[in-house]
Amino acid sequence: MIGGENFAPELVAAIVRSADAAAAASAAMVGSGDKNAIDEAAVAAMRAVLLRAPFAGTVVIGEGEKDDAPMLANGEQLGLGFDRSLSPEERASYPACDIAVDPLDGTRLAAEALPGAVCVIALAPRGTLFDPRDAFYMHKLIAGPAGVGVLDLRLSASENLRRLADAGGRRVADLTVAVLDKPRHAALIAELRTAGARLHVVGEGDIGTAIAAATPGSGIDVAMGIGGTPEGVIAACAVRALGGFMQGRLAPQGDAERAAVLAAGHSLERVLGLDELVASEHVLFASAPVT
């Protein structure tokens, strides 16, 4: 858990409990081979806890829409602040929050009993999380505090590696880069290998690799490439709390998504920093491992 000092202890405990509940429900189905069923179990367990949590939470990032998986839906209202059995005065006493959530990041990993599946949730004050409406994919660049003022998504991957290495008095060959193992990253992986960096290639686990990249001493120096926008906003909450570096730029995969992103008013050229992704220093991030 990161950022617990930013919220009331009762709310922090409820958020941690929601992640633990999702992990427990998922763990019972690890290795089942049914990733949707295990995801659905995680969603139901997390929702049950959040409905009774002491806040007025609105889901801004409900991961799952992009692949039609079970999810806590965008716009869903959770917590005692929305409980109509309470008086208006009681409901108003609870803090209004944005929720970014992935009840099970790495559904395939859990379904196949592979390492890396985790249940995650993040909170921030209402209206402070970037709402990536209709934008399912994002180009991301993430590192620890050493990347602040050094890295820039507008530069090439190899130039960013040179900058990060120079800033730390290291060689590019000493850096480890996390990249998702996707066909869209073939050119990026080739560039990183040519530059001489070490690669940590993972099939899934977008959020976990982002947090590792933002954590000094984790063995991952930087994360690069295109991953889910919902996962990116969730990760941004943790990265901000860790004092790390992150930039993102929307990267629609296909004509239909591109048209929807533009119709929603998003720019495909704008580079989003942490201040745009999470416009508050008061963030809470909780996770619970499944595999």
TrEMBL record:
UniProt KW Acetylation keyword: no
A Pfam family of this chain: FBPase_glpX
Known EC number: 3.1.3.11
Enzyme class name: hydrolase
GO process terms (BP): fructose 1,6-bisphosphate metabolic process; gluconeogenesis; glycerol metabolic process
GO cellular component: cytosol
A GO molecular-function annotation: metal ion binding
Family per record: Belongs to the FBPase class 2 family.
Descriptive protein name: Fructose-1,6-bisphosphatase class 2
Organism: Microterricola gilva
